[in-house]
Design brief:
It comes from Candidatus Viadribacter manganicus. The protein is an alpha/beta fold and 174 residues long. The chain is built from five helices and six strands, in the order ββααββαβαβα. It has one domain: Leucine Aminopeptidase, subunit E, domain 1 (3-Layer(aba) Sandwich).
Amino acid sequence: MSAPFEIMVGRIETLALDAVVNAANRQLAPGSGVDGALRQAAGPRLTEATKRIPPILTGEAVITPGFDAPMKFIIHTAAPIWSDEGPQGAKVAGLAKCYMSSIKMAASRGFESIAFPCLGTGVYAWPRGFACGIAIAACEQALEQAPKLKRIVFCCFTEDDAKIYRDGLGGRLR
């Protein structure tokens, strides 16, 4: 199967796809960055919905409607914090699980499109190039179990981030 990857520079909260992925915290409490932008676009019902969901484990994914935002659903996942104590391998596995759990969630609902921000590279301080390599590898692996997924968008906030993804994907772009 050819990889259905796209890279764009833009704001993830504006995308009209089946799902976008939220860079959430484990408590699903309101935050800044991607989470804050999605909450503003989706309106107060998103925070009401996440208050009813118990805290999630690192790498786990849960789903809510998109409410007033243009995407149908928001998949929330919590990346590990780069600077936290612990073995690097466990952190890498946790970040990869964010992507894999999100794609698994999308596949279980028959979604054809999903967008990811650069998970973990904001306040969680993952080195951007390193996190990008993990993202691409995890998505490629998860795609094997997601036959209906035709479009995976890496939505980058800056052109510098988009270049890292373009370089990482080489000729495997849509």
